[in-house]
Each structure stands twice: as C-alpha cells, then as structure tokens.
Write a structure and sequence with these properties.
By secondary structure, the chain is an alpha/beta fold. The chain has 19 helices and 32 strands. The chain folds into five domains: 102 residues, GIY-YIG endonuclease (3-Layer(aba) Sandwich), CATH 3.40.1440; 59 residues; 152 residues, P-loop containing nucleotide triphosphate hydrolases (Rossmann fold, 3-Layer(aba) Sandwich); 149 residues, Rossmann fold (3-Layer(aba) Sandwich), CATH 3.40.50; 74 residues, Ribosomal protein S10 (Alpha-Beta Plaits), CATH 3.30.70.600. The strands form eight sheets. A seven-stranded parallel sheet has the order 12-13-11-14-15-10-16, sandwiched between helices. The chain has a six-stranded mixed sheet with strand order 5-2-1-4-3-6. Strands 17-26-25-18-24 form a five-stranded parallel sheet, with helices on one face.
Length: 655
C-alpha cells in the first residue's frame, strides 16, 4: 500500500514546515486541518496538517506521527493561515498556534488566570522592572482593568504577568459575568442602504453612530438568515456577554467563544459550531473558528486598538477579515461609530462599500467650558449635578492632576528614574508627585526650578471628581451622577443620560503620537452615543472642536478627510507601509548589531531608530511585498544566535 505523507506545521519559531508519514488507510480528503502528535527533535509536539505531499525521494528519513486526532480547521482556514503567515512574516507554526483552542495545545489546561481580570494597585512604588514588565504596566495605565485575554492579545506571557502579581503590583479578580445594568431595547424595523437580503460578496463599512442601532441591525440580519451562519467579532469579553444575552433571546444556536472560557467549554463550542451552523459571537481568538455554512463576518468596533494584535503573528484583524472574505467568498461588515482612518481611505478608494448613506450625529445642546483651574471646574461640575440630576461625567484619567509644568519656560516635571512625566496626587490634604510609570514619588514643588515662575497643573481625573462630589453634595444626590473613564464609555454598558460632561480630553494632544488628533476627535465625539440632551465639554481646544460641528451636527466625514490630508502630507500611515524590527541582546554590543542591520537593510529607508544598552529598535519603510523577504532572511540568520532575540511587526500601530 502506498505511504501517505503530510506537511505539518509545528509551533516553533521556524519558517519551515515538516514532513511526516500517517497511516495510509486514512481518508485523504479529511486529513488536512487535523491535529497530529509528532516526534520533534527529542520531544513530542502537536502539529496541524497543512497538506498532503506526493511521495518523493526525501533527503532525510521521514518519521511516523504518533497519532492523528481531532479536526481543527478546514482547507479554507489552512489557506488563510498560510497567507497570514506570509504577509506578516510570521513562522507558520506559531501563526497556526495562535488560533487553535487550548485543548489542542495540550497546555494551560489548568491555567489559574483563565477567567480573571487584573487591576494595577494604587500607591505602590515600582522597582527593578524589566523592559517587558514596564510595557505591561504602561498598558495598565491606559486602562481601568485588563482581562487575561486582552493581556495575551497584546503579546505578554504568563511569566511577565505572574512576576508583577508576585511583586504585589497587580490585583486579581474573577472575570465579568453578563452585565445586568446595560441598556438596550430591540427594534423590529431599521433600514439602511443595503437591506438584509441584498448583501453581495463585498466588504462593507457600517458607520452607524449608535452601537445599540448596530446591534439592532445584526439581530434583524440574523432573522433574515434564520439564525444561521453569522460570525460577530467583538473587542472585549464584556461586549461578547451582552451580545450573547441579546441574541439568545431570539435564536437557539448561539455560540460564545473567547479565552475566558475554560478548556472544555472552548472545545465544545469549537466542535459544535463546526458541525451545526448558528450565530457565533467571540473575541479575536474566535475569528478562524470554522463555523459551518458561514454566510457573513462582522467586525464590530473595527477601529479598536485591540484589533492590532501584539502576539505572534502580530496581525491586524481587518487584514485577516479581508483574507477570509477572499477565500470563503462571503460579505464582511466593518462596523464602528466613527470609521478608522484606514477604513475611511478604503471607502474613498471604493475598496469597501458604504452600508449607510450618511453618518449623521446630532447635538441638541452643546456647551464648551474652558478649562481654567481645578477648583473652579469642580464647582461647575457640582452645579451641573445639582441642576440636571441625571449626569454622566466622563473623566479621562484617574489621578489628581495630570501634569505639572511652567507656562513661562516650558519646564515639565518628569521622573528622574525613567523619564516619564509626573502626576500630581493628593493624600491627607498634601500634594505629592508620582511617576505614572514606575510609581517613584517626589515632593511637590510650587515654583519652576529653572526660572522661578509659579507652576501650573493641567488635567484632573476620575477619583478626584468622585471624591469632591461626594464630599460636597448631600448623600441624596449621589445616585444622580456617575463618573466613568473614557475607556468605560460604552452605550450598552452605561446607559443613556440627560446630561453628559466630558472632562478635559485635551490630554491626548500632549503625547507624541501621529494619531493624537484622531484620538482627540473620538474622545470628543463618542460621549454623544450616551447623551440624550445636554453635552458639556471642558476643553481649551474650542476652535478645533467647533471646526467640525455645524448646525448641531458633527462633521465626521470632514474630520476624516482632513486627517487623511494631514497624514498624506507628512508621509504617515496609511500612506506608507512600515515594518518594525526589534532585537534584544544579552552579550553583543548594540553598536555592532546596528552596523549589521543597516548593512543588511541598506535598500530600505529607516524612519526611526532607537539604541539602548540591550535593545535596538528600527522602523523601516517598504514599498514592495518582495522586500519582506529581507526580514525573513534576517530572522533566519539571527535566530541561530542564542544571545539575540528578534521580533518583526508589519505595519505597527505606532512607532
């Protein structure tokens, strides 16, 4: 009987695939996408069969697999994985490994962090942190909390997370149940440009501003499709739980998949969804789950930062959605309140089609309040609560004041240890300075050490607002207001309020990021999703805010047009393609690495370079896809040196 050879992807940091023999009595039409256990060097590994190979005179002895097991992917997912690996210059084995359920990996079966949520403890001084630990701390500083899945998506391993817990810097809590207090009412009738039954095999942009209306559209779409073949990707477990609850009211076969599920639950969902079509609701980790008879893929909140995954293969979900669209020949809907700049450019190029005629956002009562000083702003907030009695206050940070600086000479209070800017905190009536990254503490200073001018404070946060209002208002008023961070601001989780106050979104403009103005516009506009009547903004950017508001309407399209023009003029993404190369070194001097890197990539333009004692980082601009081969060749050469660790990221989110 003729021997049967297969090509297998093994989860190792190599670009190679490996050939093995499997029992010849197996059905050749059903082996691709199956899990196998294989001998690999001196160990046993799992692998996924990518293809059947014709018999030939192999240069080495072909080993037998130990076993052929569960079907994980169909041939279509395997083709998509190969494209993804090639585009993101990612080893095929690690690319495949990202998407398989935990049961297939045969590790983390009893992972104690599954289903957990993590918080950065307050008032702890961070000492002796590695570069990776600092990066994870920075991520916590941008969020009120992070789920285990979100931490893994950003490229951090359990070892880094566990080290911060052991040092006492993180607090661990159980994950979120389905929320009980969200606000959503289903509506039967809702029309858009493309009726539910006329979606073609295209990619659509759905920029309906109000999230509850988008959810309403999806439910009606599912009804037209008889509750079968719909896959919805969401940026958080929290939203997955809400969507799952709402869809389950109307449909029987609704699947929920994310990394917060335990191993058994994950695998049961995976198997059942492959065998019986339905509605699949999941986070990024679910995107290549082979839902039977898939008819449409929806990426909700397509502008979310979560969708630029930091774990290998470091991919963009929108790019993967495009590969799925091409391979499975199904329509894809990219949805958000405000389109990402990249999605809007694709719309202008007619690479995606509009699902709505025009994204209209009305403002009934807008008031701009100049940010003068902390005490005056807080007393204005108090008067608003006394007057309106149904107030949502959107704070953008959690400290007392965000910045201490000199208006005369430009001096700014920065940490002497790590260079990060210092924030003003208040304890027992006394102010002090604390680093927002390493938590080092310093005495508060009133006068500029360079020129003697009186220093100014800028910005204030959630905790200070809550503390002030509860201290200055009778307890009977405490239920009349709610203070949330901008990261918590979601219509489906906070409800609707008569008055919404947006406190100092200007802080985003203080950071050197080419996307700062886009982020600022979103911070200004998104609170309107929860506003019923009055919208008040504390900002010193009135001119910029009013530039895109006319006759009570927010001009989203005009802002995106201007942002595209600015980026094109400055040669910034999405008008250039970039690759970030990061090399960690133990013994080799970085100046020697720098010489070698610049020699190897001499045909490419370097747009950023950073050298430190044990790390070098480059961002290169490339034009042709063939130029990616330079990075693959470099990775193969360098990875042989155990003193060096290489990371490659195609089109990084920032640089």
């Amino acid at each position: 009987m003729e021997e049967l050879f297969v090509e297998v992807a093994v989860p190792v940091a190599l670009y190679d695939t490996f050939i093995y023999k499997i029992p010849s009595n197996l059905n050749q039409n059903d082996v691709v996408g199956r899990k196998v256990k294989v001998p690999f060097k001196s160990t046993k590994h799992y692998g996924i069969i990518l293809d059947i190979k014709a018999p030939e005179n192999f240069k080495y002895q072909i080993k037998n697999v130990f076993s052929v097991e569960e079907k994980v992917f169909t041939e279509k997912e395997i083709k998509i994985l190969k494209k993804l690996s090639e585009f993101y210059i990612s080893p095929i084995g690690l690319t495949v490994d990202y998407f398989v359920p935990d049961k297939i990996r045969e590790k983390n079966i009893k992972d104690p962090f599954l289903g957990k949520v993590f918080y950065l403890k307050k008032d702890v001084e961070l000492k002796n942190l590695t570069d990776k630990q600092l990066k994870l701390i920075d991520l916590f500083l941008e969020s009120d909390y992070l789920s285990y899945e979100e931490i893994k998506e950003q490229g951090f391993d359990k070892k880094t997370l566990n080290s911060l817990i052991k040092k006492g810097y993180l607090e661990v809590k159980d994950g979120f149940p389905v929320l009980k207090d969200y606000s959503y009412v289903y509506q039967e009738i809702q029309t858009y440009d493309k009726p539910y039954n006329s979606l073609e095999n295209k990619i659509y942009l759905f920029d309906e501003f109000y999230p509850e209306k988008r959810l309403n559209y999806y439910i009606n779409l599912a009804k037209r499709l008889k509750g079968k073949g719909i896959h919805i990707i969401l940026p958080s477990v929290e939203l997955c739980n809400i969507y799952y609850t709402e869809f389950s009211k109307f449909f029987k076969d609704v699947y929920l998949y994310n990394d917060q599920l335990n191993v058994k639950e994950q695998w049961n969902v995976w198997k059942n969804a492959m065998e019986e079509s339905g509605i699949l609701i999941g986070t990024v980790s679910s995107i290549l789950l082979p839902l039977k008879d898939l008819k449409i893929l929806i990426v909700e909140e397509e502008d979310s930062k979560v969708y630029k995954v930091k774990r290998t293969p470091k991919f963009d979900v929108k790019r993967l959605a495009y590969f799925i669209h091409k391979e499975k020949k199904i329509p894809v809907i990219l949805s958000s309140s405000i389109p990402s700049v990249e999605a809007f450019l694709s719309l202008k190029k007619k690479q995606v089609l509009p699902l709505t005629k025009e994204n209209i956002v009305n403002i009934k009562n807008l008031k701009i309040m100049p940010h003068k000083n902390l005490n005056e702003d807080l007393h204005i907030l108090k008067q608003i609560v006394l007057r309106d009695r149904e107030v949502l206050i959107v704070s953008n940070k959690g400290y007392y004041s965000g910045m201490l600086f000199c208006e005369r000479c430009g001096w700014q209070a920065n940490c002497l240890k790590c260079g990060f800017h210092l924030r003003v905190h208040l304890e027992n009536g006394k102010k002090y300075l604390q680093c927002g990254r390493c938590k080092a503490k310093y005495e508060y200073v009133s006068d500029c050490p360079d020129c003697g001018f009186k220093l100014s404070e800028e910005g204030f946060g959630k905790e200070k607002i809550e503390k002030f209002l509860k201290k200055s208002l009778p307890e009977s008023y405490w239920n009349n207001f709610k203070v949330v961070s901008s990261l918590e601001l979601k219509t489906l989780t906070v409800g609707k309020y008569q008055t919404v106050v947006n406190v100092y979104p200007d802080f985003l403009l203080e950071f050197p990021d080419f996307r700062s103005w886009e982020f600022f516009f979103r911070k200004i506009t998104l609170p309107l999703t929860v506003c019923k009547e009055n919208y008040i903004i504390f900002t010193n950017q009135e001119k910029e805010v009013m530039k895109f508001i006319e006759n009570g309407k927010v001009k989203i399209k005009e802002f995106l047009e201007e942002e595209l023009q600015r980026r094109k003029k400055m040669r910034l993404p999405p008008f250039i393609k970039t690759i970030k190369l990061e090399i960690l070194t133990k013994k080799i001097k970085t100046n020697l690495i720098d010489e070698y890197v610049l020699s190897h990539f001499k045909s490419l333009k370097v747009i950023k370079k950073q050298l430190s004692e044990n790390k070098v980082v480059y961002v290169f601009e490339y034009e042709k896809e063939e130029e990616k081969n330079l990075f693959k060749e470099f990775y193969i050469k360098i990875s042989k040196n155990k003193n060096l660790k290489v990371s490659i990221e195609v089109n990084p989110a920032n640089f």
